[in-house]
């Protein structure tokens, strides 16, 4: 059992206790970050005169060699080690001798694991933002191609007023843009380096924490050593943001599932993103959308778990905090996978424009515009509301729609109706007259699409690579 401690103990840890305490089975995922942080640490130690240049060079060469050997498969991370830190240090010492034992000078596993986790989460924040950007790009393409694709807008899952597919997609663009911006906020707030905090009270070695932070791309060092090792807020924030992403994906998936049904037939999901039935040959199921919807609860569970772990922990580090990793790793992989699959599904989806327009026509989505038409003719709105209500009842009884009624039928309900009513309640007129910013009219939508293009062209991610 390879451990970084033991001098205080007179007998070996019980095997069950060792296995229960060990984290190598999951924190091996932090291997690259552990190497990166260790290299920055020894470079700083040499700069400060704590290590000689020869010692630094030997350690850096050894660490680089370990990384290369693991990545090419020559060296395996096995469970004989307690954690990823002991794996790295034990292999380093085996390769370069006593100089390897100096790697841990001026640091604790507490600030080391805090650093590794921050480096890993910071990287995953960027990767998640990139996946979101891919989805935003596909949404924008759908919007640009469907400015005149009329469909019903819904409230209470009932047809309400006519909109366009571009407008409907724009609502999801807004949601995922907020998710994209949340990644930026998390990145900025977490970007302070905990290395040098020691176990909880710093160290007597003359560390240059600002230099270490700069080597690792942090804004600066964290300013309280106790908080540095006890902080998991950035994980909670990230999991909260990931949960919101999944909530948005789940809402979208619910609509795709409804739209894919025989009753709606608004969309056809590409064969690559559908499955069939083992018994019913006619079936083409929206399994990807359903699985994304289902996996949302899995990500919520990770957030709830870490909140529960952290709620009663006193300062500073406690072993409970080892529970921050497995569920977080799983949630990150789940969200990135769901984003990639959903983006592919949306990008290959076919929209049945005629079915969407017909559904809007049959659902009395132009009833509000019909009432507005009467108001324009001098009828008080409350009276107009009642007239159109009777008109809708008449249409339901006759199994028809407002647009299909004859002038004689319209005038029988209200003499105010004239020939211009047909133009006033057409889907095109209902949509195009709504031109305030944020509305579905073509002019308003073109302005919004311009704003969205500018947003993606000037994405905050570009700043991270410059």
What do you see in this structure?
- With 466 residues, this protein is mainly alpha-helical.
- 62% of the residues lie in helices and 5% in strands.
- It contains 20 helices and six strands.
- Strands 1-2 form a two-stranded antiparallel sheet. A two-stranded parallel ribbon has the order 3-4.
- A hairpin with a 2-residue loop joins strand 1 (150-155) and strand 2 (158-164).
- Helix 3 crosses helix 6 and helix 11 runs antiparallel to helix 12.
- The longest helix has 36 residues, at 109-144.
- 39% of the residues are buried.
- The mean pLDDT is 94.
List keywords for this structure.
466 residues, mainly alpha, single chain, two-stranded parallel ribbon, 6 strands, two-stranded antiparallel ribbon, 20 helices
At a glance:
This protein has 466 residues and is mainly alpha-helical. The protein has helices spanning 15-21, 24-27, 31-47, 53-72, 84-96, 109-144, 165-190, 209-215, 225-230, 233-260, 287-310, 326-348, 353-362, 367-376, 381-398, 407-413, 421-424, 427-432, 442-457, 460-465; strands at 150-155, 158-164, 192-193, 220-221, 267-268, 350-351.
């Amino acid at each position: 059992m390879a451990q970084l401690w033991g001098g205080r103990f007179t007998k070996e840890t019980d095997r069950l206790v060792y296995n229960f305490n060990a984290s190598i089975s999951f924190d091996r995922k932090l291997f690259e970050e552990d190497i990166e942080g260790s290299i920055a640490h020894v470079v700083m130690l040499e700069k400060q005169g704590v290590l000689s240049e020869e010692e630094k060079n030997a350690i850096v060469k050894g660490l680089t060699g370990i990384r290369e050997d693991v990545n090419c498969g020559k060296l395996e991370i096995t469970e004989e080690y307690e954690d990823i830190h002991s794996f790295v240090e034990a292999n380093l010492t085996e390769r370069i001798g006593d100089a390897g034992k100096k790697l841990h000078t001026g640091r604790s596993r507490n600030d080391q694991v805090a650093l590794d986790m921050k480096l890993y989460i910071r990287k995953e924040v960027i990767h998640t933002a990139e996946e979101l950007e891919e989805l935003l790009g596909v949404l924008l393409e759908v919007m640009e191609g469907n400015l005149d694709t009329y469909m019903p807008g819904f409230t209470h899952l009932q047809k309400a007023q006519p909109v366009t597919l571009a407008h409907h997609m724009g609502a999801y663009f807004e949601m995922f843009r907020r998710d994209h911006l949340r990644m930026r906020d998390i990145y900025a707030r977490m970007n302070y380096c905990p290395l040098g905090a020691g176990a909880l009270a710093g160290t007597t070695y003359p560390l240059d924490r600002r230099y270490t932070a700069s080597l690792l791309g942090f804004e600066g060092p964290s300013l309280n050593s106790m908080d540095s090792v006890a902080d998991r807020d950035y994980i909670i924030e990230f999991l909260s943001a990931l949960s919101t992403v999944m909530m948005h994906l789940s809402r979208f998936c619910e609509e795709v599932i409804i739209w894919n049904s025989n009753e709606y037939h608004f969309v056809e999901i590409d064969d690559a993103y559908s499955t069939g039935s083992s018994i019913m040959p006619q079936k083409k199921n929206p399994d990807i959308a359903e699985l994304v919807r289902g996996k949302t609860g899995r990500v919520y569970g990770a957030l709830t778990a870490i909140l529960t772990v952290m709620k009663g922990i006193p300062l500073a580090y406690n072993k409970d905090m080892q529970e921050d990793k497995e569920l977080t790793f799983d949630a990150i992989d789940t969200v990135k996978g769901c984003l990639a699959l959903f983006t592919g599904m949306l990008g290959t989806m076919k929209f049945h424009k005629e079915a969407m327009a017909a559904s809007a026509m049959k659902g009395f989505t132009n009833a509000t515009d019909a009432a507005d038409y009467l108001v324009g003719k001098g009828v008080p709105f409350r009276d107009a509301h009642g007239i159109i209500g009777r008109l809708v009842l008449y249409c339901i009884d006759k199994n028809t729609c407002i647009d299909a009624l004859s002038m004689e039928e319209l005038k029988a309900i209200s003499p105010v109706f004239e020939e211009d009513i047909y133009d006033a309640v057409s889907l095109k007129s209902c949509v195009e007259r709504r031109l305030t910013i944020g509305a579905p009219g073509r002019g308003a939508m073109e302005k919004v699409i311009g704003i969205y293009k500018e947003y993606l062209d000037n994405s905050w991610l570009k700043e991270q690579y410059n």
